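ok so for the tutorial part 2 we go from a plain amino acid sequence to predicted structure tokens. step 1 is just haveing the sequence, like this:
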Amino acid sequence: MKTVWIATGNPHKTEEFAKMLGENVQIKTLKDLDQEPIIVEDGTTFEENALIKARALHQIVHEAVMADDSGLEVDALDKAPGIYSARFMGEDTSYTIKNQAILDAIKDKTGDERSARFACAIAWIEADGTEHVYRANMEGFIHDKIEGENGFGYDPIFYFPPFKTTSANVPAEMKNAYSHRGQALEMLKKDWDLQQ
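step 2 — the prediction. this is what the tokens look like for a chain of 196 residues:
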């Protein structure tokens, strides 16, 4: 069984990666370290922040590591919350409140004016320190209401046309097949021996 280090402490992300990587890959995260490092994500892009996280973990374990940085870009809000998606309105603010705030902010927008995307950059650093970054988007729209119990974060307001509903309203396996994180991970898996 392969072991892959992922620079995250987010249990939802860990679960998604575990499902996408399959049963033959054991995942270790920041929670598996004796002391979880404090990582300051001060990059200006998803790619920069993914590399910041991956580099911090690589310096500790000196093994192959990956990290992702992802978020929601709403075109009518100048691509906000973007790289600040997790910190939007405060990290401790519930996503129900965050999602409602976005709905309220674009309530007068219709059709293509509600365009949005989930973006994901995955950084992969080899054991020897060689760096790679993979980027993918999931294009859709902001729904007119909060809908769905699956997923997490902004999934309940992200309407994905192929689903004809929000990404929180479909099973995880279906979402992962189309998601920004799933697409970026597939790119990585094609380059590296992480196949199931």
